[in-house]
Automatic annotation (TrEMBL):
This is diguanylate cyclase. It comes from Chromobacterium piscinae. InterPro entries: Diguanylate_Cyclase, GGDEF_dom, Nucleotide_cyclase, PAS, PAS-like_dom_sf, Rev_trsase/Diguanyl_cyclase. Residues 331-373 form the PAS domain. CDD domains: GGDEF (cd01949), PAS (cd00130), PDC2_DGC_like (cd12915). It catalyses: 2 GTP = 3',3'-c-di-GMP + 2 diphosphate. The keyword Oxidoreductase does not apply. One of its GO terms (molecular function) is diguanylate cyclase activity. The keyword Transferase applies. Pfam families: GGDEF, PAS_8. Keywords: Nucleotidyltransferase, Transferase. Residues 491-621 form the GGDEF domain. Its EC number is 2.7.7.65.
Amino acid sequence: MTPPRFGSRSARHAKWGAALLLLVTLALLAVDLSTSYRQLETEAGRQASGLSQLLAERLSSGIHEAGLILQSSNQIPEIQRLLRSGTLEPGARQNLTQKLLQLLQLAPYLSRVEIVDTACQTVFSSKLDGTPRPHHNEFCRWLHRIDPKESNYTTVIHSPTDGGIVLANKLYDGEGNLIGMATGLIKHNFIQDEVSRLTVGEHGEILVLDQRQLTVTRWPQTNGNDPQSYRPLQPREILSHDPGQMLFDAPSSFDGRERLYSMRQTGNYPFQVAVGLSRRDFTRYVWDKAWLAIPGWLFLSALTLLALRKHLSNLHQHQQLLQGNERIRASEEQARLILDTAPLALLLVNPQTIRIRHANSPAREMLGLPPRDPEQAADNELNLPLKLQPVEQWLREGEDALQQEVELELEDKSRLWAIASLRRLGHDSQPSALIALYDISGRKLLEQQLHESNQQLAEMAVTDPLTRLYNRRHADMVLRDEISRCERYGQTMAIAVFDIDHFKRFNDQYGHQAGDDVLVAVANALRDTTRNTDINARIGGEEFMVIFPYTRLRDAQKVMSRLQIALTHTTFPFVEQRITFSGGVTDWRPGDNPALMMSRADKLLYDAKQSGRNVVLSDQEEA
């Protein structure tokens, strides 16, 4: 029996090897594309979830701020007189219009404020030339509903011309009797300014829905369409469902395009925010990668077939073997040339000895290695120790890294941030590891500067720029939280409201700069006489407020007396008179809300002014 020829057996093995190589590379390509697609889908889900959370918080904050503005209208005397008597003289009506316009300036997205009496009739509107808008029956029913906890109400009006989110707040007179309500309208386009700063892709979509899943507003805007004509979102596949958020695939109710949606409830308000990212946007990279990879695989297949044909035709020829060795050497030289001309810092390191075999010019400059000698042989190795943490530790522990952000420590103990990749090349006779480094120290510095700027902006949002005390908005939020704490745990709490006596006359006599100096001096004295846990705020021109958590009324009164003494001993080189103030101090009582506590403190302040100024009255003194 004649044994099979060696060449035939080698040819058969070469054919099977070539087919296996092409199948394996095709499988790896498919796995890589699938992995990239899943990674992009997961990242898109996180992005949609983050955007929906951000928009839900902003929408909740905006509605809450609009509610506070409507609530503050209860303190306007003209509104009280209008709702009690039904009419106002022209001068008072003009003053009321100006005050409502000032309230609207605090919330640009609030388009109008209307005052409604107990008969559910609009008696005043901030729109001078507008027709009063009729109110739904649900507002009338809510207005006369006897529930002290329901002091505000929120609903949606679906109308192409005058629709949006409608807020309402009950109004009471000084004796606690219901005299009407204040309503405000947030137009459909209120969310456009918010989403203009967000990135949802070219085909993304943002929706605000009511409890019936009807569209309140949408980005991008749709012209001439009734929001009620669109169907609710119908999830085809729910990817995740948390208590506060649901992530799902669904076709859009507006254009029918498939999107990845993140739907989230807007706090305690009857709205939901849905952020949809189009798969056409976040999978574009995968398709581009596929269009580049498939021709590359075809090119690799062509090269493999050509190499196979060449190998079969020259299997027994020694000269072809020499030519193959020459091609391998040429390939090594080409790889070394690519390594030297790459813009990244690239290193070839022996993972066993942790010594550098080759480094291109960016790597030499980054690590402080000696520059390459042009007369040096191309295959001459550096053979220098690698002093670079934590890359040196990765090599010792046999770890690989792919585009990992890391802070590097150089041999001279200096540090820099870089994106590092480490891949072992796996050669038995001469093991090597390829290290790629990209310097991102400049980007890290910019990120740090951006973080510091954001902290400064956050501090400016709650601080009065002149006195460096808290502003009115922050004080109102703290007062509301402290009242909630008192209601929950039965603790004590007091507030003091005071203003500087004859401050306007002082400004007129000495100038506004001197007035600013006095305000700063009062703020400094206030810091010196109060605790670190007390909240000091400037709530008006010369008006201040102090919130005393866990403090009894008489202790708060003592603090205000110390503040009077401190200001009595404060002198100014340009002022002949002493600085005095008048104020009122009150404590929390069961059933109190911020408006009631502020009303009592303001009344005590007014009584102190009538008593001759430089007086601080408390509820104990009234009793």
